[in-house]
Amino acid sequence: MSPKASKGLQVIEKEIMSSSSSTPEKPATYSSSITISAPPHIVREMFLDFTQIPTYSPNGFIKSLQPLPVGKTGHDLREGDLMKNSLGGITVYPTVLSNTPTEFRWRGPWPYKYFNLLTGYHIFKFLPAENGATTFVHEENFEGVLAWLMRLDGVAKKTVLKFESFNQDLKNWIEGEDGKKVV
Questions:
Q1: Measured between alpha carbons, how far is 176 from 172 in angstroms, rounded to an integer?
Q2: 159, 181, 149: which is closest to 27 by C-alpha?
Q3: Cα dist. 34→5, 37, 43, 88, 128 in Å?
Q4: 33-88 pLDDT, tens per residue?
Q5: Residue 82 β-bridge partners
Q6: Is 179 helix (H, G, I), strand (E, B) or coil?
Q7: Bridge pairing between strands 90-92 and 62-68
Q8: Shortest CA distance to 62 belongs to which of 91, 102, 98?
Q9: In whole angstroms, how far apart are CA 25 and each of 83, 116, 146, 147, 153?
Q10: According to a count of CB atoms within 10 Å of the terminal CB, is the N or C end of the chain lower?
């Protein structure tokens, strides 16, 4: 390797390490929230109707959420159940960690099930807000040896924008794009 190329790699490595701040195992966390003018149980009910995702978010990064085995619904999912989820350009097979009135959470190793180089904890919360509305929280925590990659500025910004877009699509569907609620 030429000295110039070696120096370029050192600069990139230095930028990556400064972006990752401290240990490579430090988790990366992204969160976004939105207020939806419907009670939490309605927002949860509609969110768990995964077959509707292509209807209200056809261009979103969440392409599909599919309970396994096929035939189960989002409402049927329990701790330990599996899913097949298409998120952007990847398919993951996460394990459901909770499906309660206030939270839906899964854990998915990516990209390879057996290496656990990067594990994502995807969380959706349905919290009471003023006037009978819901604060819908959408977040993900990444852990593992490669979690530092998820803390890079470009990745962080894109991830939050994707969450915000999905949240807005869900809100528009539940409230009705013309301001008339679907519920």
A1: 5
A2: 149
A3: 46, 10, 12, 21, 12
A4: 999 999 999 999 999 999 999 999 999 999 999 999 999 999 999 999 999 999 88
A5: 68, 95
A6: coil
A7: unpaired
A8: 91
A9: 26, 12, 7, 6, 17
A10: N
Decide if pLDDT at 147 tops 80: no
H-helix or E-strand containing 168?
helix 153-175
Helix axes 153-175, 40-47, angle to 10 degrees: 110
Which of 29-33, 72-76, 152-156 is the least confident region?
152-156
Is the preceding peptide bond at 67 cis, omega within 30 degrees of 0? no
Transcribe 15-79 into DSSP letters. Answer: HHHHHH-S-TT--EEEEEEEEESS-HHHHHHHHT-GGGHHHH-TTSSEEEEEEESBTB-GGG--T
Structure tokens at 162: 């994707």
